[in-house]
Amino acid sequence: MAHLPLKNTLLIASLLLAGHLGAIGAASAQVAGSTTVGISVTEATQVALGWSVKKSILGRTVVNEAGEKIGKIEDLIISPDRSLSYVIVGAGGFIGMGRHNVAIPISQIRDSGGKIVMPGATKAVVAAMPEFKYVNDTARRDLFITSVKQDITLASNRLADLQARAAQSTSEAKAQLDMQITGLQLDLKAAEGKLAEMQRAGANRWKEFESDLNAATARLRKWLSSTSR
Question: Domain residues for 167?
Answer without folding.
Answer: 137-226
